[in-house]
Structures
1.
Amino acid sequence: MVIDKMIPGRIYERRRHTAEREMNRIRAKMRSSQTLFFKNMLWLLKVSVYIKLCVFIYCYLFDYLADALIKAYQMTSSKASVAPKL
């Protein structure tokens, strides 16, 4: 016969430790899910900023190249009297 189970204080201690372990497990799970959520949000933020940056650079470069092409065309067409000016 096990005497620990006969003493009410021991039963209370065992239950309390079990409940504490369970609460710690739940807290750890919540922490890990919150961390995962914030990591995912941070990843999405990084990706969106990267995409916006790429689009901005692409548009800026396209605008710059278009201006350069127009100027080059105007310089070549100014020599010929038939070509229209832009």
Note: The longest helix spans residues 8-79.
2.
Amino acid sequence: MASLRGLGYLASQLARSPRQLKHIAKWIRARSGSPVEQRLPWLPFDVINLLEANVSPDSKVFEFGGGGSTMWFSDRVGTVVTVEHDPTWAQSLIAATDGNPRTNILVHDDSDGYANYVEAIRAFPDEYFDVIVVDGRERVRCTAEAAAKVRPGGLLLLDDSERPRYAGAHNLLAGWPSQVITGLAPFKPQAGTTTVWRRPE
């Protein structure tokens, strides 16, 4: 059952964006579980729908920061590479993926100022990934590293992109077509905002 606070939030979201009405049932259901249990990204539902339309069983995905999105991608794409800074959380993700051979979870902690975390994607060729999700530590630095690794026509996502400290990421990708998507998101008590860039062909 949604809380009074949750219902108040829901009403305010619908007043601002009636299109979000279509996501109400999913949003309420998601409040009773965790992203990993429900195998859902912690992203606005409209972003999840966009991803659904842009991935296939052959897609290659890289994530800076894992969770429900790792589960979601592992059910849909050919390769998921996730870098995590928290070894305990990484182990829980490995257990949740149950040895799925399509999923590779890398652990790089903060002992070096997150340098190995940020640079983990350098192990892959340029233009290798179809989708890259930046949703962990050092997001501006990760966006800078990710730009060359997403294929032309591929997607680069920055979650919580409205935060002022991530303005540098927007500057880095100023020439790329983008969508700023704000709306109901599973597990969040407030609107989620994600920017989705498509690398120019």
Note: The two ends are 46 Å apart (CA to CA).
3.
Amino acid sequence: MEDFQRWLDERRQAQSIPIGQEVSIELTKNTPLPDNCFKDMMDFTYRPRSQLELDDPEVASHRKGNYTEIFLDRLSDETRKLEYTGPATDIPPVDVINLYYDRRFTFIKNKSANTPLTYSAQWTALADQIAEKLTPFVAVHWRMERLEPLQNLMPCAQRLVEKVQALSRGQPINVFLLTDYPHLLMTSKAKPESMSFKLEELQQEHHDAMKFVYEQINVTLTTLQRPGDVIPYNELPPGWSLIPIDSMAYPADSSVLGIIDKLVAIRAQWFLAGEPGKCGKASSFTRRIIYERLRSYQAGSTVIQEPMDIFKLPRK
């Protein structure tokens, strides 16, 4: 990034502003996009934002067309020429494509593309600090979004508590909870932590199940620290502890919580996840945590006591 910023400065000093175009590849075209922090450093004249709506199924066979080819075509020089709205003669090339894409699963057929990017050192250092303070602890991933039937939530909560209590063996143990349920519970500022989990979808069964958990065991969660926004601690129960996280961005970037939660969960002594389809949702997020924990465990980690386990409905 430093090299790119230096290049922008050199172009500005030479009075040769680079030509840019914004390209977004989204799940839905009405997705609210973050502000482009480079919008004042490039010339976007005759270059309106290019938008492509493209589904993101995890299974490659469910995709319509070759996603690698679709991306390459969308980013090609030929497409840039077709989208140019100025005079048709002597079309200037685009120097910088400002790309925004909403993808959770692999879309490039290349071995090097499967190598995950490393997280910023500031987030890994923060995760180390949180994990050190919580140790010994179990990380629990409980995703409630669209779980049905809702009657399963309470027995799932009971099984979760039983699992944690079995791990603790009568000794103090901290619980780090990763969930899309509102981290501010039912306070005046509560809202689901997942963009796809709507406030109106929260039912009494969700509240009852989570209440059972924090009345039986003490849980710790992260919450986004927004400028000027005060956390209503007086509205929270004693078994519910929050760690405010500064995203180091304006406006506050809620995606940072997912990064921190994942990094902390990877460092936990134990990890629990809800049984897919019954007490939880299968996701790439969970699989990434399990993959990293297994890798560390098999490499001889002395921190990880058990790579993973699941809490599930009692057998009938």
Note: The radius of gyration is 23 Å.
4.
Amino acid sequence: MDEILKIGINKEKIYLENDAVLAFYAQADSHGLVIVAGTGSIILGIKEDGG
């Protein structure tokens, strides 16, 4: 992160998320479930009410 800031990128415009969040919102901006499995595994689910 320090290296990114050294080249002048505004830290207010940087968002760090895990793979599951990226995969979830790539498929739809709605409710559902995404499972990422590889070296590590993570599951993310979002209900219709956003919970």
Note: Strands lie at 32-37, 41-46.
